[in-house]
Design brief:
3 strands; 3-stranded mixed beta sheet; mainly alpha; 260 residues
């Protein structure tokens, strides 16, 4: 625009609208920087309300809203957080794609209970939506990720896991907001174990911080077992130990202490 005359620049700007928007569509690019890009059939677009945006609201699967940040946070905790959670468990199962992990018969209970806890804490972190609305979103996310015709790889989702386990990010924020959930905290623990096994440069202080969160869990047999595995096995935590632990949790009908 700087190369145009003021008159020509005005003509262009009269037909250009800059909007604050959020898309909810999985578009994995793997290997990184690959020219081949796939996208899932599902797709939603949210646009911040504005008088000049009315025409955009007529686009398919598009919604205008005054609460764009709420949708962004819901997606972060619900879709992005769950993708990484499923990938961490998928690594423990030594499978290649997360749809295989999600459909594993021994883990259905685990994911169901993790969703229950996640919906509860998401209602606390993103109060614009009710617990019921968050639960419905998580159910939709699960259906999308179970799609065998559009798979996402464990390796891709575990890229930059150090950043994804940041205290302000999708996994740890949820765990800190609900330390009573063995299902949520165990995902963090297994993610830390994965990093310690694959990335020797991973900061010890990050491990200690998350372990401290797990220590705050109620004194249940599952929580004690989680702490024992992390402390005893440390860097050498085996996939078999991780999977057996997840299956053990899933076999218990354990209520979250947070629900008072």
């Amino acid at each position: 625009l700087h190369a145009l005359t003021k008159a020509d620049a005005k003509k262009i700007l009269d037909h250009v609208v800059l909007v604050e928007a959020l898309s909810d569509c999985i578009v994995p690019q793997y290997p990184p920087f690959s020219p081949v890009i796939f996208r899932e059939a599902y797709g939603e677009l949210w646009i911040e309300n504005g008088a000049s945006h009315k025409a955009l609201a007529t686009l398919p699967h598009t919604t205008t809203t005054s609460h764009l940040d709420a949708y962004r946070e819901q997606k972060l905790f619900g879709l992005n957080g769950f993708q990484v959670s499923a990938a961490i468990i998928g690594d423990a199962m030594n499978v290649y794609t997360i749809d295989v992990a999600l459909r594993h018969p021994h883990l259905v209970k685990f994911f169901t209970r993790m969703h229950r806890d996640r919906a509860l804490v998401m209602a606390k972190l993103v109060p614009h939506f009710s617990e019921k609305e968050h639960a419905a979103y998580l159910t939709k996310v699960t259906t999308r990720l179970e799609n065998v015709h559009f798979t996402d790889t464990i390796d891709r989702l575990l890229l930059n896991l150090t950043e994804k386990l940041n205290a302000k990010e999708r996994l740890v924020r949820v765990a800190l907001a609900m330390p009573g959930s063995i299902y949520i905290s165990s995902i963090i623990a297994l993610g830390i174990a994965y990093l310690r096994r694959t990335n020797r440069q991973y900061a010890q202080q990050s491990f200690v911080r998350v372990l401290d969160t797990i220590v705050r869990l109620p004194a249940t047999p599952e929580a004690k077992e989680l702490r024992r595995i992390l402390i005893a096995e440390g860097d050498e935590m085996k996939r078999t130990s991780a999977l057996q632990f997840i299956q053990r949790i899933a076999s218990h009908s354990w209520k979250v202490a947070y629900r008072k």
